[in-house]
């Protein structure tokens, strides 16, 4: 990325959203209908702004501002008074990664997204996306070391605040060493990990070259007891959140490969405390250069649903999708998702869904 701020060259606007949404009816264990079928249409209205640039030879900035078109608030009685409803959508937020390069392949990064520890074996961002089996870093600081003119290896070591990835950061809310993580991967053959479009070696096809990539990683948290700060009234979040709450160590590995028009990947992780397993597998095929078929299986545990009574925390699902590019920057994707079993806690089956989504970049 060149430092061409007056011309705004490294700037892109991306419009996304579902055109159609369908959800099948759900039923209780007795056969009674719990929810009705839903079917609606929409105009894609979520907007994200991507930007990037460099300052000098060592400092690079990349980021995204998203949430435009969401977080709507409307007046329920049209009198302008305080009776309003806020829609359940994210507020406008910035995701930024700032990198200082000591030399090619060795850098230091600060950010609240786009971590180099992304759980993908193919490349950062991953052609076959098997992310989700490890906790994602929040606001982080990390060192990255990469080698390989052909194939190669990379190591990422970082430290992250717990559950805080939006700016501004409240100093008393989290600590920078709440979570420690380590990620390594080895590419057995194919384009070098130091390659990339506009990179030092200038290989524009990295990620789609024939290859096998192996990865492994772990995330660790001390899981200290959170105590409310009397001065600010904030109770800090210590350790992992969401589906990983209560864990102190999550570890796993992955493998991904590309052969001509076929792509495949799988990832597995396990935690030390609750001993929950996570697994994802995907396979994709470019039927044509502009049509991509994908099948994905996901079985992710959720510690938040663990109770004193026996509970099956796994909700495995299968998703099939077709993506068609109308132009290099405009695509339409249809995805059908089917759940393999019911929600054990409620005795109600999960709703199978279909969504037709559009994405356009400018």
What does this entry look like structurally?
The protein is mostly beta strands. It has one domain (5-361): Beta Barrel (Porin), CATH 2.40.160. The chain is 0% helix and 50% strand. The chain contains no helices and 21 strands. The strands form three sheets. Strands 1-5-6-9-10-11-12-13-14-15-16-17-18-19-20-21 form a 16-stranded antiparallel β-barrel. Strands 2-3 form a two-stranded antiparallel sheet. A hairpin with a 2-residue loop joins β11 and β12. It is globular, with a radius of gyration of 22 Å. 22% of the residues are buried. The model is unreliable at 1-5, 71-88 and 121-126 (pLDDT under 50).
Main sheet characteristics: 16 strands, antiparallel, barrel
Query: How large, in whole angstroms, is the Cα Rg?
Result: 22 Å
Order of helices and strands: EEEEEEEEEEEEEEEEEEEEE
Q: What is the CATH architecture descriptor?
A: Beta Barrel
Low-confidence stretches: 1-5, 71-88, 121-126
CATH class: Mainly Beta
Shape: globular
Mean of the pLDDT scores? 80
CATH topology: Porin
What is the share of helical residues? Answer: under 10%
Structural class: mainly beta
Beta-strand content bin:
over 45%
Q: Number of DSSP helices?
A: 0
What separation lies between the terminal Cα atoms?
17 Å
Strand order of the largest sheet: 1-5-6-9-10-11-12-13-14-15-16-17-18-19-20-21
Number of strands: 21
What is the domain tally? 1
């Amino acid at each position: 990325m060149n430092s061409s701020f007056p011309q705004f060259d490294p700037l892109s606007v991306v419009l996304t959203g579902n055109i159609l949404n369908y959800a099948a009816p759900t039923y209780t264990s007795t056969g009674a209908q719990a929810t009705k079928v839903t079917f609606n249409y929409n105009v894609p209205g979520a907007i994200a702004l991507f930007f990037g640039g460099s300052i000098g030879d060592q400092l690079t900035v990349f980021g995204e501002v998203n949430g435009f078109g969401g977080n709507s608030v409307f007046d329920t009685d049209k009198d302008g008074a305080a009776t309003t409803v806020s829609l359940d959508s994210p507020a406008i937020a910035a995701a930024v990664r700032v990198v200082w390069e000591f030399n090619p392949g060795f850098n230091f990064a600060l950010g609240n997204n786009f971590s180099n520890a992304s759980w993908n074996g193919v490349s950062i961002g991953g052609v076959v996306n098997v992310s989700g089996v490890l906790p994602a870093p929040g606001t982080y600081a990390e060192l990255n070391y990469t080698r390989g003119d052909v194939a190669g290896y990379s190591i990422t070591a970082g430290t992250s605040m717990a559950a805080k990835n939006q700016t501004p950061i409240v100093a008393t809310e989290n600590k920078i060493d709440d979570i420690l993580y380590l990620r390594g991967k080895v590419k057995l053959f194919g384009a070098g990990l130091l390659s990339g479009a506009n990179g030092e070696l200038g290989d524009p096809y990295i990620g789609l070259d024939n290859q096998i990539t192996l990865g492994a990683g772990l995330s660790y948290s001390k899981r200290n007891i959170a105590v409310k700060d009397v001065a600010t009234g904030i109770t800090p979040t210590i350790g992992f959140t969401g589906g990983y709450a209560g864990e102190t160590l999550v570890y796993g590995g992955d493998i991904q490969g590309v052969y001509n028009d076929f792509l495949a990947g799988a990832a597995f992780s396990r935690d030390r405390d609750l001993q929950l397993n996570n697994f994802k597998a995907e396979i994709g095929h470019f039927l044509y250069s502009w049509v991509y078929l994908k099948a994905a299986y996901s079985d992710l545990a959720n510690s938040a649903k663990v109770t004193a009574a026996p509970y099956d925390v796994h909700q495995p699902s299968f998703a099939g999708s077709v993506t068609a590019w109308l132009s290099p920057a405009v695509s339409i994707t249809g995805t059908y998702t089917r759940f393999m079993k019911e929600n054990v806690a409620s005795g109600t089956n999960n709703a199978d869904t279909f969504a037709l989504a559009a994405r356009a970049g400018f």
